[in-house]
Amino acid sequence: MKDSIQKVLLAFVFLLGTSALSQAQSADEAGAALNKGISFKEEGKYELAAEQFNKAIDLAEMAGPDALNIEESAKKQLPIMRFKAAAKSYKNKDYLEAAKKFEKAAEVAQKYDNNSLYKKATRNVPAIYNSIANSQRKKKNFEDAHKYFDKAIDFNDKYAKAYLGKLLVYKSLNQEDKMLSMVKKIKEIEPNSESARSAESSIQTYYLKKAKGKVDEENYAAAMDDIKKYNKYGSGNAQGFYLSAVVYNKQSQFQKGLDFARKALDNDPDEDLEGNIYFELGNAYSGLNKTQQACDAYKKAVDGPSGEAAKYQIKEVLECE
Fold it and tell me: Within this chain, do residues 231 and 264 fall inside the same structural domain, yes or no?
């Protein structure tokens, strides 16, 4: 019985010794991995450095308290290396790889409480995906554009610029309902932001173009519907007021045509548009049987794009002095 107890005690002591030896070995290996990581860092090999720092953390955790300093040093370095690896890919214009690496950097930074790097990485990820998506959009690769805009949104569903990008894709595809859903989303996220203003401006240009097309088709009621939608998404401008004047004049609503022509003139039109506005102003006055005012307005239109039509009104229709 006494011999058995001695054998058990000897075995226990052996195990303790083996465990202590194993922990000491792990601590040494953790230190070696840390040093390798530092060497790779100094050489600018950030991916390899990150691998070694990660290895040092795992080995230090196995080693226990004796390797605590090694573990803390590696945990401090690992997020920095992940971030620098991502930045290096970005500098090399490997943007998709950079986005993926910044995602990893954000994950590691959050895990090891590096809030500064976490914030930087989380800003970079959707911005890079958004940039890739816009590049595809400009090439009219709309499917790929949507894919990368969605990646930006998957990472940060409050990233308004990605919704704006999707709006522009839908605009190119003439998908009106989806465009409007993006405007609504952007205004929910950032109601007073540059993205919200850009979204509304984009919608306005969409409806203005539609209204112009309807005017060319002489579908004035439909044109007016589009103008009303145009005015819904922001304050009017000279172009919108001018087109309203055209539509009202075409429908013989000359007082409204006159009112909108005046509004257009009050909103700093460029030189060509100004000439066209004066022509519509002349049409409105003519329709209201105000011949002298019509003549004065047409005379201000003769040097613009509507000059020939204005001259005809002056000489042949109104016989202005």
Answer: no
